[in-house]
Specification:
This protein has 205 residues and is α+β, with helices and mostly antiparallel strands. It has a domain at 57-127: Thrombin, subunit H (Beta Barrel), CATH 2.40.10. Helix content is 24%, strand content 25%. A hairpin with a 4-residue loop joins strand 1 (19-22) and strand 2. The longest helix has 18 residues, at 128-145. The protein starts with 18 loop residues before the first strand and ends with a strand. This is Peptidase S7 domain-containing protein.
Length: 205
């Protein structure tokens, strides 16, 4: 974030920097090298070491329409990768951090859901813990296997894995509605849960 509304920051990414995009969790991660950090002197938010609970107050700093603003709300529910919240967000606020009362990061705001009449239903944020999980796995693979092999770890699911998802009524890119389904399936074994976990890595670099 720039120090003021008149200041813009342009970051040039080189081939050595680690960057990936996951469609499922709707996050793009970009590594900042030391030269960039020294140049722009960013202030980093700290993650929360606890998951949010239903009813917990939360807030979002946003920069939609080029105006800084703060909005306050609470957690409505949490399911699988997502928090559902009622913070009043503006269009263009996707990517804003979802913070707890101590200004620690709980998640990343990504979408708004509406009813058929276009009235507000709920907002969705990806849990920071899920983002951190994906980053750590892929980043550790770089340290162990090099960047090229780490990219291969973010492979597409196999046909067998895709059939398993289909068997349980799940899509590769899960919606908030069918995120609930795994919990309601009694015979979903650990292997199938691992397959669902791997959908985190349906990524592109």
């Amino acid at each position: 974030m720039a120090n003021n509304e008149e200041q813009g920051i342009e970051i040039e990414i080189n081939d050595e920097d680690f960057i990936f995009t996951s469609e499922l969790i709707d996050v793009t991660f970009t590594e900042l090298n030391n030269e960039i950090i020294d140049e722009i002197e960013p202030i980093f938010l700290q993650p929360s070491n606890k998951e949010a609970k239903k009813g917990e107050p939360v807030l979002i700093y946003q920069y939609a329409t080029a105006i800084y603003s703060l909005a306050i709300g609470s957690i409505i529910d949490d399911t699988s990768f997502n928090y559902y919240h009622n913070v009043n967000t503006n269009n263009g606020s996707s990517g804003s951090p979802l913070l707890n009362k101590n200004y620690k990061v709980l998640g990343i705001h990504k979408a708004k859901e509406e009813y058929n009449d276009n009235s507000f239903k709920q907002n969705i944020a990806i849990k920071y813990s899920e983002v951190e999980f994906a980053i750590k796995i892929l980043f550790n693979n770089i340290n162990i296997y090099s960047l090229e092999k780490a990219k291969k770890s973010a492979k597409l699911l196999s046909k067998t894995e895709m059939r398993t998802l289909k068997k349980y009524g799940l899509k590769l890119k899960l919606s908030s509605e069918n995120m609930n389904k795994p919990k309601n399936i009694i015979d979903l074994n650990q292997n199938n849960l691992n397959i669902l976990r791997k959908t985190l890595f349906y990524c592109i670099f």
